[in-house]
Amino acid sequence: MSSGTLIENFAEFAKRKNIDRPTMIRILEDVFRTMIRKKYSTDDNFDIIINAEKGDLEIWRFREIVDDNSEDIWDHDKISLSEAQKIEPDFEIGEEVAEEVKLEDFGRRAVLTARQTLIQKVKDLEKEILFQKYKDMVGEMITAEIYQVLGREVLMLDGEGNELILPKGEQIPKDRFRKGDTAKAVIHRVEMVNGTPRIILSRTSPVFLERLFEAEVPEIYDEQIVIRNVVREPGERAKVAVESFDDRIDPVGACVGMKGSRIHSIVRELQNENIDVINFTENKELFISRALSPAKISNMKVDEENGRVSVYLKPDQVSLAIGRGGQNIKLASRLVDLEIDVFRDVDTIDDEDVALEEFNDEIEQWVIDELRRVGLDTAKSVLVLSKEDLLRRTDLEEETIENVQQVLRQEFE
Fold this sequence. Notes:
With 413 residues, this protein is an alpha+beta fold. 39% of the residues lie in helices and 26% in strands. It is found in: Cytoplasm.
């Protein structure tokens, strides 16, 4: 293979991979210098001239002429007078010999190895470029085509045919994908595994919801409205705190849109995830009150030092504050970054409910006291919460909670 053919083939391959000319020249020179070092042990006294567009390659070896009996005759950059005069008869001691080395002089095997090395270097560079490109795009939203649906992940392709991965854990539980469809997701993280970039997408990240709002609400994109915080139970419920820098703009109204036109498209994309848009305020108590919407709070005590807030509500507002499966209070706690404890502000309970004190013959008093400490003083207020929520909010063990739930359920069977 001639040098011209080798360089032309490599240049064409590099252009297909969108490798710029300076980088292409650098790769070529690195490979040729490696060949030189293998044959001559050093490349210090060699010059390489490459014209990739014409496919030209020149390799020049420079050596100083010394006397045939000189002690330096074996140095890599020296040549004996007799050897130099075989190249040019009128050479003299002290002059420099510039000798062109042909690619063919390295041997057929070395040239084929160089060809494979060039291709591999471009592929490695292509992977590095892809890694850096997507690393800089982390947090951005992308629309990609689905080309394979697997059990643990969905494989997608971007516009350039690069593989993107949407793991099962980053999918909304109600997501259903088919090959050939397109889907939106946010670039969650990028990692290099055995030299190959893995681009991980997410549809459950709060950032994904932020990007959807930016796409649907021009005031957010133009930074007239800022999203202060987003918390989600993917596919179920989300709370978004927004603030406007322009007094003439209602941030909640702008995000919802006329008759819900803006938020409806976001809800559909998130598989009917229920989204509460809340006005952010530096007034902590007011922000907590808005976060627990639709429940109406009677009173509260904020203990920022311990990261807790005690909220007092009318009996008919407790279930609203807690929400189905404890979703509302859980998201509100994350939104305001405080642990919220709910208490009833009156002693009366509805006719169908039963006070926990009535079960003191079946449930130990210290367990009842622990439940009351977190605002749970009736049977229904305990049953409305899941076992996981009770574990999170109380100091009770799992077995104790299961026994309490069993006793209370029997009351209403």
